[in-house]
Amino acid sequence: MLAAIVGHESIATRSSALSGAAPADVAAAFPTPASDLALDAQLQAQATAETPAAPSLTDWKALTVESGQTLSTIFEAEGLPHSESLQLLTLSQDARQLRNLRPGEVIRLRRNAEGSLEELSYELDETHTLQVRRVDDQLEAFTIAAELEKRQAEVAGVIDSSLFAAAQKAGLSNRLTLELAQIFNYDIDFALDLRRGDRFVVVYDAYYKDGKKLRDGNITIAEFVNKGKVHQAMRYVDKKGNAAYYAPDGSSFRKAFIRTPVDFARISSGFNLARKHPILNVIRAHKGVDYAAGTGTPVKTTGDGTVEFLGKKSGYGNVIIIKHGQKYETLYGHLSRFRSGLRAGSKVKMGQVIGYVGATGLATAPHLHYEFRVNGLHVNPITVALPRANPLSKSEVAAWRAENAGALAALESISMQQSAMVQDFSGRNATP
Ligand SMILES: [Zn+2]
Fold first, then answer.
1. How many angstroms separate the alpha carbon of residue 352 from the centre of ligand 1?
2. Distance (Å) from CA 322 to ligand 1 centroid
3. Tens-digit pLDDT profile for residues 335-392
4. Do residues 417 and 366 share a domain?
5. Terminus of the chain with fewer CB atoms < 10 Å: N or C?
6. How far apart are CA 2 and CA 344, in angstroms?
7. Is the distance from CB of 168 to CB of 156 less than 8 angstroms?
8. Which of 145, 170, 193 delimits the end of a domain?
9. Do 160 and 250 belong to one domain?
């Protein structure tokens, strides 16, 4: 009813604009195309005189960048002026990224009534979008930042054949499955220890943009029940931003040392307390391990510590001794040179390059002589049980639990349900 009235009124208005052309009633009842067009032109002219007309825009067009294409060839294919593609690149720092288009990326654009570029949009990365707009006939660029939404996600599974099969069935991505295996790698040998009925719960972050899942984040907390033994790991990020997994009591999953100080090296002489020395030709204990490697091969410190000695020492040649806390020391001998800037007192991080393989001191060929001392006693670096990295303090554990209460609660509730189901299942199996 309302629509009819509005319609009638609009016709009446139009008719009055056509004063004298035809009786109002006739025009209203039998509007002719010609009179309508004339009317529209007149109305439009009126509107234009009052406020500038909004230019009619085309729909957005999405162009997928093909191999070998540049912004300029895309503009050419679209019939847009070459000069504008060049101008675009100078609009802002972010707009310069249009210079390095990669195949598969998408450029969205739309034109105005004259057919020239009115707007362009290009995703710079997962949270930033470049927007180009024509304002007062000049192209302007803006960068729009989107917030990623972090949501908690949970996945649980029971091992039937392999971890990967169970994880896949549960919907855990390959990346997070690998991460899960790596977290518990120190306690569970996934090749030998895995049993049918072992189970896991993983609580992790998932990132969403505009309500759509973009990608998985990190595992916040995970549980793996292997042969009835419960293993749990929580992700802790320290003040410097280093992330590592710890047991719920704060003990570390990581070792305090890596086993080998050189990559791709061959052991040319093992730890032997009654070895005949190749140069001196007398029985002399070999209190370390020799790694044969080319001169200049990087040598890495096997643990965090402080350089205790750096310099020449008789048979060792150029040697570095590193102290790791009160109990442990490592030694690296026959080096061709030291890392520049390194000196006694320098702090070093596990895996950091400290020097380079050489044949200084008593050496027949380039190799690294590596020693591992516990409380001043030489031990075999190949077989020594490596200590765990420093644990978290009680207050750090408490802070983590407070901050991740939601993830903890989710893990505990899923784990309880899972445990009940597994027991129920095995119980039913036992009953004939
Ligand atoms: Zn040696």
1. 21
2. 17
3. 999 999 999 999 999 999 999 999 999 998 999 999 999 999 999 999 999 998 889 9
4. no
5. C
6. 91
7. no
8. 145
9. yes
For residues 198 and 285, membership in a common domain is answered with no
98, 41: one domain: no
Tell me the CA–centroid distance for residue 289 and ligand 1, in Å.
6
pLDDT in tens, 288-316: 999 999 999 999 999 999 999 999 998 99
Report how far ligand 1's centroid is from the alpha carbon of 265 (Å): 14
Q: From ligand 1's centre to the CA of 288, what distance in Å?
A: 6
CA of 324 to the centre of ligand 1 (A): 21
Alpha carbon of 286 to ligand 1 centroid (Å): 6
Q: How far is the CA of 68 from the centre of ligand 1 (A)?
A: 55
3 state DSSP class of 330: strand
CATH of the domain at 235: 3.10.450.350
Range of the domain at 366: 266-379
Whether residue 334 contacts residue 367, with contact meaning beta carbons closer than 8 Å, is answered with yes
Domain boundary among 127, 145, 163: 145
Distance 345 CA to ligand 1 centre (A): 25
Strands (E) in 211-324, as ranges, are 212-226, 229-237, 243-246, 266-269, 289-292, 298-300, 305-313, 317-324
CB 380 within 8 A of CB 286: no
pTM summary value: 0.61
Distance 328 CA to ligand 1 centre (A): 19
Q: How far is the CA of 374 from the centre of ligand 1 (A)?
A: 18
**Residues 290 and 244 both lie in one domain:** no
Q: Compute, in angstroms, the gap from residue 338 CA to the centroid of ligand 1.
A: 18
* 353 and 411 co-located in one domain: no
Number of domains in the chain: 4
Cα 146 to Cα 130, 141, 149, 208, 396: the distances in Å are: 11, 16, 9, 11, 32
